[in-house]
Design goal:
240 residues
């Protein structure tokens, strides 16, 4: 019964996540950008735009320039999260890719860095007055959810070990619509329940900044206003 329930929940949550994110991305794609508003200094070529967004995604360049200590916690959390997620790929593969095997020891201890980064980001919402003023309950609840997911995952890794073989059989079975028994460990059930909750609310949360960065007009526009005149649709109508 537990296996069937979580299998159905994961299928439903995955559908909500994929469809929700796709709809949001389509909305971003269709939203017009009637003005040239790249943040200076802006690149003059398309390849320069790609390089700039790459630096933003990997290095958080603009955050580094604006606030060093927030950048430390933010970069620590996101890079650790990448390693943790990469490590989790082994549960969905019969034979893990070679690079997934390589990141296993790093991903195991990246959980500590992830929790430290989250704690720092949550702390700024209490300690920095202007951030505390604009923080909403959803901001705090989202950070609490991420902390709970990380803490429950670390508890299974470092304190109360679960049956990894059975868990992998359950996860790989989901990939081919086969229901294999899910271990009934309380910490595992809590961890998976929180992950499902995160998947459901992801498309309507501020976490959509992950794909949204690629559609930011201040980042994805070239500084070519001298070479090419940009005419907003409403202005073009007036010129007719």
């Amino acid at each position: 019964m537990l296996t069937g329930l979580f299998a159905i929940l994961f299928y439903a949550a995955t559908t909500i996540l994929v469809v929700g994110v796709a709809m949001q991305v389509i909305a971003y794609w269709r939203t017009p950008a009637p003005l040239k508003i790249p943040t200076m200094p802006a690149p003059r070529t398309q390849s320069g735009v790609v390089y700039r967004i790459g630096r933003e995604v990997v290095l958080f360049e603009s955050l580094f320039r604006s606030n060093k200590w927030i950048w430390i916690f933010s970069w620590m959390f996101h890079m650790a999260l990448f390693l943790v997620l990469a490590r989790h790929l082994r549960y969905f593969q019969e034979s893990a890719w070679f690079w997934v095997d390589i990141v296993q020891p790093f991903g195991k201890y990246a959980g500590f860095a992830m929790l430290a980064g989250l704690a720092g980001l949550w702390g700024r919402r209490f300690l920095v007055e202007r951030i505390r003023y604009i923080s909403t309950p959803s901001d705090h609840l989202m950070l609490l959810l991420l902390l709970a997911i990380g803490a429950s995952g670390m508890a299974m890794t470092q304190v109360i070990h679960t049956d990894i073989v059975a868990l992998k059989q359950f996860a790989t079975g989901l990939m081919v619509f086969e229901f294999n028994p899910l271990p009934a460990d309380p910490i595992l059930i809590i961890h998976l329940s929180l992950v499902i909750l995160l998947m459901v609310i992801f498309p309507v949360s501020k976490l959509m900044h992950a794909p949204g960065i690629f559609f930011s007009p201040t980042r994805n526009q070239m500084d070519d206003s001298r070479e090419k005149r940009l005419i907003a649709p409403w202005a073009a109508e007036m010129e007719k």
